[in-house]
Structure formats: structure tokens, C-alpha cells
Amino acid sequence: MKFWFQKYYPLFIVLAVAAALRVNLLFVRGTWWFDEMFSVHYSLLPWGKAIKYWLLETNPFLYNLVLRGWINIFGQGEMTVRIPSLIFGLITIAFVYYLGQKWISRRAAIVSSLIVSLSGIHLFVSTETRTYALFVFLTALSFYWFINIFVEQKISRWTWPMFFLTQVLLLYSHLTALTVIVIQVLALVYFKADNAARKKLLLTQFFSLLIWSLWFIPSLLPKLNSRSLYGWFFTYNSESSNILTILNTLFVNTGVPEFILTLFAVILLGIIFYAIRVFSQQEQKNKNRLFVLMLWSFIPALLGSFFGQYVTKYFVFSLPGFALLIAWTFDQIADKTARLAVTALFLVIFIPSTLAIATGPIFSWYSITKYIEKNETPNSAILVIPFNEELVIKKYYQGSIPVEGVYPMPDNLSLEERIVRYNWQSLFPSDEEYEVWMAEHTKNRDKIFFLQYDGYESNSVIWFINHNWKFKKRIRAVGHIGITMFEFNAPDYYQATSSTGARAN
């Protein structure tokens, strides 16, 4: 027992640090935002509806299935439904430690697992009621089996079946899992593997993709229309972003000073160049392993930059590979003092960002909903854009006035089906449709509480001003996820009391 503790006590310390940061964030994180509400709501529907909407959803349903089982056992409280992600996050950190010790050294195991522990984006996904923490773990597990087969060449009777099962689960966790398949095929081109092993890998990937297609094809067919080109991830402004945006934000929150971001980027580039420099000096087995880690670290960011996508959570699955690559690079520094100094500098730079994420709210509705409940009138209403936010506002708003998402599109879909079909799309109604909708939903209202995301491309605020509504107050929700409420009074509205109002005769 004593020997076992001495062998693994660094892992216990790393896990203690990781757990403390994540548990603290669980307590201060705040309310659900839409993405989390979506996960919970569509996991709890009756089986018939759940399957229907899981097939229409943009991402596959493995996490919804896991969450449904969890909720049925433990309940659906805000903190309760975030615990599965916490568990997957901590398992991933322990697994990265294991991989670092197995493939590199004990030093590398400590550093790599500590990097993942302190990563702001991993902190975020480890407390988020979404699939990402599960996805990161399955990615690491997939590369473990891949390297075991093609680098370590340690194959038991269970290796290929476990690899196949992992691939299927991985593909059913998130759409970007396809990148893992691409990376492994690219690595296979580099390896000098025998034909039998190559054939087995290709068959494994083929049959896992075949099983995945049972969900993907029914999900894809309804999306084969021009609307799908207006997904928010295709239309958001990414002009100030580049590949370093992705690589930096795997570790450092974008809210830190520009100087810190620039310094961190310089250090990161130095690490990358040094890793490339010492790569050629390695024996072939190490080269093969490092080549996989490099592909795992950089291919997702390269693909993201190519397609103009810089949302960090979509690339968090590359974090374990990148952490292992960085730890390996530090491990190559022969001078102990220099190695410790570089490692400490790297970690110290992004610790303030880590603490900022771990100790503050991510998002809370209450600053907005409490204000509305206090200041609403019998003839007021809440309008929100994008329309899908209606689902989550109704959970936290306890007043009596109607809540309606701005949706000027003519269809007879229920709110649940509208959300699952179009929540990820930017909708562009005609000016006439928009004008008719807004006029109808503000008619006979003396006050409108209008909500939208910061920077959201919306003409609604301008619409109120152009129609002589009087702007009264603006409140931004607490946290990193920016949602703002604008309060408007009707042109002929006068304040009667603190809680009631009327239109002038």
C-alpha cells in the first residue's frame, strides 16, 4: 500500500487540484444557459419524441443518452446534471497522467496532466452539461488504442474490439470526431505498418462509420437546403482570429490582457519549434508516437483555420495530445534548472486565467429575470432573439407576462421542433415578414423587455427606436456569456406606479 501511494502520489495531488478548481466552479457557475437547457430538455422527452429530435439534431445523441440515464437516477438539478462532465473531466486528467508515464516519463505525466487540469477550456467543459468532456475522454482513449496497436504493437484479443467500440462511441459523441478518423488515417500513411494491420484499421474505421451513418444520414437529409448554409458558425465574424487563437485559448482565456496572450503565443511557438527540432533526433518508435501527438495537436486547429472556425470548445479534444506533446518537449531539456524554469513559466502564465474561470460565474439569468419580475406591467411582454432562448428563459423567469422568441418565419412547427431544426441557423425573413411580426407582437403592449446576445446581428433594437419606442434601461447578464436586456416603453406609455403602467388615452 505504501509503495503504491509513493508511486502515484503526484497523480493524487494533480487530481486534488483539478477537483478543487472544478468543484468550486460548480458552486459559482450560475444558471443554465441555452446549450445546457437544450441538453437537459431533449434528454427528458418521452422516448418517441426524444428519438425523433435526436435524429434531427445537429450532433449525435450519445451524451443525451448518458444524461437521460443520469437524470433518471440522480435528478435534474443545475449542479447534479453537471456532475457527469466533472467525472469525465477528472477521468481524462488521470488518463493523461497514465499516458504521459507510459509513453514518456513520470515528469511528463505530472506536467501533461497538470496542463489539462489548469486549462480554462477544460475547466469550462468539465462543468458544462454538454458532450465535450465525454468527447475529450473518448478521443484520448481512441488514440491510446491506436498507438498501442501501431506504435507499441501490444495487441491482445481485446485490443481491436475495444478500439472498434471506442470509435463507435467517439463518433456518436460529436461531429468533429471525424477529425480523429482523419488524423489516424494520416498517421497510417506515415507508419510502416504491415498490410494486415492497415487493412484491419481501415475496416475498423469503415464499420464504425457505417454504424454512425445510421444516425448521420437521417440527420443530414432534412438539412439539405439553402438554410443550412446560414449556420451561426458559418456566419460569425472571425476576422481577428487565426490558428494561434485556437492554440492559445486551449490554455489561456481570451479575457486576459493582450500582452499575456502575445507572450503565451510566443512561448507556445517556441515550444513547437523546439519539438520539431528535436524530433529528428529520436528513434523511430518515439518518432511514430510523437508524429501522432503532433497530428492530434495541430490538425484540428489547421482544419478550423481553413474553414474559418475558431470556437475553442470545438477543438478541446486536441488538448490531451497537445499537453502530452508540450510535456515531452520540456522533458527533452537536459539541464534540470532550465527544464523547471521553462515548465514553471509556462504554467504560471496561464494560472491567473485558470483562477478567473474557476472562481467567477459563467452565466446567470437572475440579474435580468429579477429585474423584469419587479418592473413588468400587465400589458408588457418579453421578446428574445434568437428565438430558441425562449426555452431557457421560461425556466428562470417567474413572472406572469408572455415570453416569445422572435421568429418571423411562416411555419406550423412546435417550439421544440423549431429549436432542434433551426437553433443553429441564422434566419433571414423578408422585411415585410419581420415588420408584420414585430407589429403584431408589440401591439397593445406598453413595455417590452427585449433580450439578445451581445454582438448578435439583430435589427430589433433599431426597430424599436425607429418606431418611437422609448429606451429606458439596459442590463447585461452576469458572466462570460453575454446576453443583454433592453427595456423599451411604448410611444404613448406613461409611468403610473413603480410596478404598473398604462398607455395615455
Can you put this structure into words, describing what you see?
The protein is an alpha/beta fold and 505 residues long. It has 2 domains: 10-222 and 247-359, no CATH class; 365-503, Rossmann fold. It has 22 helices and 9 strands. The longest helix has 27 residues, at 2-28.
Helix and strand arrangement:
Layout: H1 2-28, H2 34-44, H3 47-56, H4 62-74, H5 83-103, H6 106-118, H7 120-125, H8 132-152, H9 159-171, H10 178-190, H11 195-220, H12 232-235, H13 243-249, H14 258-279, H15 284-306, H16 319-331, H17 336-359, E1 363-364, H18 366-375, E2 380-385, H19 390-396, E3 403-405, H20 415-422, H21 431-442, E4 447-453, H22 460-466, E5 470-476, E6 478-479, E7 483-489, E8 493-495, E9 501-503
Helix pairs in contact: 1-5, 1-6, 1-17, 2-4, 5-6, 5-8, 5-16, 6-16, 8-9, 8-15, 9-11, 10-15, 13-15, 14-16, 15-16
The helix-and-strand class reads alpha/beta
The percentage of residues in β strands lies in 5-15%
Number of structural domains:
2
How much helix is in the residues? 55-70%
Question: Any idea what the radius of gyration is?
Answer: 25 Å
Core attributes:
single chain, 505 residues, alpha/beta, Rossmann fold, 2 domains, two-stranded antiparallel sheet, 22 helices, 8% strand
Question: In a nutshell, what does this entry contain?
Answer:
Helix content is 62%, strand content 8%. It is α/β, with parallel strands linked by helices and 505 residues long.
